[in-house]
């Protein structure tokens, strides 16, 4: 799996967030360390997959399949042809992910993590 280094937000990214094209998300827990640290904030693009399929290695935010009010951030390991993806945290020992809840439909992806907020 290739690793993605997330860029920091640019002025354009901040403008898109202010225009509500991007959403702000705060990371909780250690499941994505070392890529994302607890309490770190990222901008997500909710429209990223309207015209393109996710690519393995990208980081996404999805609702937890068993806790509707909880959003989780995970990396895509693979995408099946039927439209579901396998998600896993970068810190597998601290992550609840597709190993426990199975494949996640692409329609459940709330957004692609685009960049880090400073």
Automatic annotation (TrEMBL):
Q: Which UniProt keywords apply?
A: Hydrolase, Membrane, Protease
Annotated catalytic residues: 31, 74
Entry's localization field? Cell membrane
Query: How does the record classify its membrane topology?
Result: Single-pass type II membrane protein
* Any one cellular-component term (Gene Ontology): plasma membrane
Primary location class: membrane
Task: Tell me the GO BP annotations in alphabetical order.
Answer: signal peptide processing
- InterPro entries given for it? LexA/Signal_pep-like_sf, Mito_IMP1_subunit, Pept_S26A_signal_pept_1, Pept_S26A_signal_pept_1_Ser-AS, Pept_S26A_Sod_Ni_maturase, Peptidase_S26
Question: Domain Peptidase S26: where?
Answer: 23-77, 82-114
Domain of life (superkingdom): Bacteria
Query: Which family is annotated?
Result: Belongs to the peptidase S26 family. IMP1 subfamily.
Name of protein: Nickel-type superoxide dismutase maturation protease
Organism encoding this protein:
Leptolyngbya iicbica LK
What would be the name of the gene that encodes this protein? sodX
């Amino acid at each position: 799996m290739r690793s993605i280094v997330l860029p920091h937000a640019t002025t354009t990214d901040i403008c898109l967030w202010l225009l509500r094209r991007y959403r702000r998300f705060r990371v909780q827990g250690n499941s994505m360390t070392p890529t994302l640290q607890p309490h770190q904030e990222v901008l997500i693009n909710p429209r990223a997959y309207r015209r393109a399929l996710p690519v393995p290695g990208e980081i996404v935010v999805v609702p937890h399949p068993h806790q509707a009010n909880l959003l989780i951030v995970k990396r895509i390991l693979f995408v099946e042809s039927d439209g579901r993806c396998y998600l896993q945290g970068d810190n597998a020992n601290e992550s609840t992910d597709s190993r426990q809840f199975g494949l996640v439909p692409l329609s459940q992806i709330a957004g692609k993590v685009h960049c880090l907020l400073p």
